[in-house]
Amino acid sequence: MTGGGLLVAGTTSDAGKSVVTAGICRWLVRQGLKVAPFKGQNMSLNSYVTRDGAEIGRAQAMQARAARVEPTALMNPVLLKPGGDRTSQVVLLGRPVGEMGARGYFGSPQAPGDSPGPLRGGGREALFGTVMECLEELRATHDAVICEGAGSPAEINLRRTDIVNMGVARAAQLPVLVVGDIDRGGVFASFFGTTALLTAEDQRLVSGYLVNKFRGDVSLLEPGLDMLRGLTGRPTYGVLPYAHGLGIDEEDGLRVSLRGAVRESRPTPPAGEDVLRVAVCAVPLMSNFTDVDALAAEPGVVVRFVDRPEELADADLVVVPGTRGTVGALRWLRERGLARELARRAAAGRPVLGICGGFQLLGEHIEDGIESRAGSVPGLGLLPVRVRFHAGKTLARPVGTALGERVEGYEIHHGVADVLGGEPFLDGCRVGAVWGTHWHGSLESDGFRREFLRRVAADAGRRFVPAPDTSFDALREEQLDRLGDLIEEHTDTDALLRLIEQGAPAGLPFVAPGAPELVEETA
Fold this sequence. Notes:
Number of strands: 27
Shape: globular
Structural class: alpha/beta
Keywords: Cobalamin biosynthesis, Glutamine amidotransferase, Ligase
Number of helices: 15
CATH class of the largest domain: Alpha Beta
Protein name: Cobyric acid synthase
Family: Belongs to the CobB/CobQ family. CobQ subfamily.
Distance between the termini: 21 Å
Pathway: Cofactor biosynthesis; adenosylcobalamin biosynthesis
Oligomer: single chain
Helix content: 25-40%
Domain CobQ/CobB/MinD/ParA nucleotide binding: 7-252
C-alpha cells in the first residue's frame, strides 16, 4: 500500500522549502508516523555521505534527521554539483556518473560540456524513471513522504523535462503546498502568479499556500489571505513567523551574505575573557560551508565570510573551505591577494585550517586532469602535500582520533593527497599553525572541536576558553524541534494531515490564464 505524501513547492528559490519540509517531517514523526523526506533532483554544492557511501544533498540529510530516519540515496536520487556557470557533475543514486552542460541536461545530449556515460542520449528525461522508482519505494515503506521541490514549479520553460516539481506531483498524484517568503515582498502576487502559470492538470494538485517569515500582527494579513482564497479557491494552511537563529543546513545558497557573519544558533556570552574571530575565505564554488556551523555554535566564536586580504588581519583563525573548483579557487586567492596574506600568517605562526579543497590548495603541487583539466599547478606551499586528481571519487565516513579526541567526519573528493611530512592530522597534516584535512564535519565532534579551539586560541594569543558543555548534536535537535513547533503552532495541522493522507481536494478551480498543455510531458 502506498503511503501518503506531499510536495512542498516554493514561489522562488530560498522561499523556505527545505526548512518547511524538515519542520513537517519533525511534526509528523512526533505524531507517531514513519516519515521520509525526498527531493528528486537537487542542485547544491553542500552534500553529505550516507553510511553506505552515497552522496546526497545536505538538506535531505538534515530532513532525514528531522524525520528520525537514516538518510539514503533514495531520498535524493539526482544531485547536480555545479562546476561553473554551464556545467555540473551529475550524481545518480549517490555516485558520480559524469559532467553535463545545461543544454545536455535539459534535452540536447550532444551539447558541449557533456561527458560520455549513462546520461548520454537522454539528459534529464532519462532520469525520471529512476526518480519515480525511488519515490515509490519510499512511499511503500513509510506512512508519509514529504517531497521538496526546486526553484519554482512555474518555470514554464523547463516544465517539459521537470523531474522535481509538478512532473513528480503529476506522476505520483501528490498534493502541492506552495511556500512563499513574505519577507521579500510580493507574496500574494507570487502565490497567484505561480498558480496561474500552471496547466489545468497541474493546477488540480496545487492545494494551497503557506506564508513564511512573517513579521508583525497576523490579523493585518488575514484580509489578503481571504482575498487570495477568493481569487484562487485555495486556502492558506498557515503563516509561519520569522524565526531568528535557525542554524539549519540549506542547499541553494549561503545562509550568510559575503563579508557577513554566520548566524549564531543562540546568542551566548563567551566562557573566557576573549572572543575568537574566524574568517572563512569565500572561495568560488565553495562547498560544504556548513563545516563552520559548529564553530559558530560555540559561545564567543564569531565567524565571518570574507573575500579581501585586509579582512584576515584581525582573524584568530582563517578557514579555507571546500570547493568544487580547487584550481580556480587557488587562482582566485592569488588574484585577490589572499594567498600572500595566508603565507604571511603561516610564517608568523598564526592559525590556518584547510578543509578538503582548501587543504589541497595549501599543498605544494596539484596535478589536475579531471576537475579543471589544468594539468600541473603549483599550490600555496604551506603544507608538504602533493595532490593528484583521480576520476573516481572518494566517498567515505571515516572515524579517527586527533588531539587526543575521537573524531567523525565524511569525505567527498577527487583529489588524492600524498602527505610528505609534518605532524599527522586526521588524513592530512599540520605544520606549525597550519592544519589541513579532507574530513568534512570533523568540527561537529565536540571534544575535538574544543581542543582544536584551545590550540588556536593559544597560537593566536587569545584568552578564549571553549564552553565545556556545548553539544552540537543537541543544538541540531533543538533547532529541528523548533521547526516542528513552528508547523504545529502556526499551521492548520488537521487540514495539513488530511492533505497528506487523502491527496488534493477534488474540484479545485482553474486560475486563468494557465499554461498550455505540452505535447511531450514527463508526467
